[in-house]
User: What shape does this take?
Amino acid sequence: MENKSLVSIDQYGRDDVIRILDNAARFENNPNRCLLEGKIAATLFFEPSTRTRLSFETAVLRLGGRVIGFQDASTTSSSKGESLKDTIRMVSNYADLIIMRHYLEGAARYASEITNVPVINAGDGANQHPSQTLLDLYSIRKTQNGLLEGKTIAIVGDLKYGRTVHSLISGMSHFNPTFHFVSPDELRMPDEQKQFCDRLGICYTEQDEFTPALINCSDIIYMTRVQRERFTDMEEYERVKNVYILRAEMLENCKPNLHILHPLPRVTEIAYNVDDTPQAYYFEQARNGLFTRQAIICEVLGINHLI
Amino acid sequence: MENKSLVSIDQYGRDDVIRILDNAARFENNPNRCLLEGKIAATLFFEPSTRTRLSFETAVLRLGGRVIGFQDASTTSSSKGESLKDTIRMVSNYADLIIMRHYLEGAARYASEITNVPVINAGDGANQHPSQTLLDLYSIRKTQNGLLEGKTIAIVGDLKYGRTVHSLISGMSHFNPTFHFVSPDELRMPDEQKQFCDRLGICYTEQDEFTPALINCSDIIYMTRVQRERFTDMEEYERVKNVYILRAEMLENCKPNLHILHPLPRVTEIAYNVDDTPQAYYFEQARNGLFTRQAIICEVLGINHLI
Amino acid sequence: MENKSLVSIDQYGRDDVIRILDNAARFENNPNRCLLEGKIAATLFFEPSTRTRLSFETAVLRLGGRVIGFQDASTTSSSKGESLKDTIRMVSNYADLIIMRHYLEGAARYASEITNVPVINAGDGANQHPSQTLLDLYSIRKTQNGLLEGKTIAIVGDLKYGRTVHSLISGMSHFNPTFHFVSPDELRMPDEQKQFCDRLGICYTEQDEFTPALINCSDIIYMTRVQRERFTDMEEYERVKNVYILRAEMLENCKPNLHILHPLPRVTEIAYNVDDTPQAYYFEQARNGLFTRQAIICEVLGINHLI
Assistant: This one.
């Protein structure tokens, strides 16, 4: 079994992305398939994440596999001073696949280098969350009549620390997008991502106002949580928090194909009255995570010929 | 699959109760049946309850299903400020059945209104715990030669806050019972339940002494835990705690069909020397929980024709 | 199904040990076998231990069984004041096998006396950890060309509180070993174990220096963690901690068959440069735990005729 760990979305080229999304579509038609019979996946969540864990565990179970693991590191050997290396080597004795979330950037890459068991990065610090990116791409394609090419995407909220946002830019870069970055000054898109767009000739704008014009020209609005922890000035947080709230009224003149995505959990940044609009897609997006993760699991395990 | 969420025991009429108890009896003959092949149950315990969780998870696994979930809310998205609505809608993407325990009254009903996935209420605050009631009824019927009609039931301990006690009255109300409510003044049966009995013409007495006469006239003694947390006056707690202890010696002149139930966990209210009497039934009662919950799971999922 | 709970390594004679190790070897050839179809194992970890728990759960799942349980006692009924007896009797209603780790010595024996469900002791306080001992014996045999007889074993570190060390002496006692006990004065091997060796005529030496001569005459070096908690004098801890570190350089003149074991997790007592030496065996040792535990599970459940 070839080790094809998924550490970063940057590993995947255009064809890889399309192949995985096509396989995800096959799983959407039928998520219950005995492709992992006799296999065990370890879900190692050094940092808790119920949503991502349940999504991956469901993916494994519906493929006929079994799950072992832990939900947070507080009760693990690492709390006895064990190194990540030893923990990974220990788990490699038991599992056929390692799915890990860690609070340190680079943890997943490091793990993939010390074990022959395929590793899927389920989030490492503020760095990468590739399965989220792939389910975002799957959701965008699905809401845009099967097309990823040439879409206008407004990304709103915390663009500085938003792991999913940075990976989304990388993942979409194969498909000639136009980005509108909407954030408070304190949380602007880092230079690294803007330079990446410049190098690839990807158009983008930056603004701190969440304007009707912007909403009305977008194919996708990707909302993110603005986290209190990020602010030193609480007044500033309260101001910002209220500026970047999407409400149903704001969608009156939107394009017919507009859909709203959010990695979830959302707190206040999407008003509940948006949930009932045809543009709201964030719960379906979460559902797509199941199929996309099934496709990713098969990819890293080298399981092909899905019909 | 018709959504037949079980939120409250009051949903079930006499025939529903009997049908479920009959199915539970079928599962007692053979608990391992592949009725949930390819199905996933989510056990969402926003409030921990090992006993109830293990009982439900065993029920699912012995039916051939798989389990995802969490054991307490401290490491979940809800700790990030996610609403119950969003958590339930998220889980609805992954699971075919939701089994939830929540510290807020009404949480299970609310959940059942925002998802198409059947929800089983595994306890919501001080409100309802219907699967406990059904296993209590199953246990009463089994210990009374298959008869639920016309039984005399002494309910002892905390009758004010006891969730299981309130549901038991509702569940037994179809079967013409006589109740003896035994509690300290501070923990008397609330008017709501007494008025319910009055409306239905159900006989009951109230007393604060746990007398031999009472024990000797009962078919069932239902003991409950008197929780320290309920008392402001600790001296009063100590007095009460010692008044309502059932000891083997107290069973000398009981009716031959008397059996003792307890929702468990018990602390001091049943002396250990009772465990070895033929009247002790609380561990078998817990065991009946497995079969009853298997029957409930099939009921809410619309799985019929069990032989 | 005969109850053959494994509480202490002392239950097993020479033939029992050899039978179990032979079965473990069969599982190493093929760990995926449907021998627990329809069976449920409860992993009750009143004290957390990720490594042992994941190893046992993998063993059960690869045998086709299912798992219920808890990872630490903080969220269990016992935190509501339930006795161990009631918890065990409750779980006995649901599971076909109980695997328990408890912080109190004797907890596993007590559990095995109050239930008909087989109990495997996965560690009780500082007392016993028999599955660790059997995987140690399996590892010793495997690294010594299939021979357990007449080996020279250096045991290094905390010999006073080291549960695995005490059980190892008992388990090896059938095979005419020679022991070298290496520890700081504060953590010397207790008289009980030394008297045990004396009674059986087992040769041993005691020293507080970890010398080249000792390393060069050993067939097995069994390293253990020296835990800070054990010391009142922190200076003494720092001194001791640094004295008992095994480094690759120290293995230059070792015997060709020397292998290094460690129950893991290791902290500083084995330098990382040892990991790449042919003598390092502690990760394979952990892997052997899977096969050995599968053999133990079949032993206690009375599942024989493995081919």
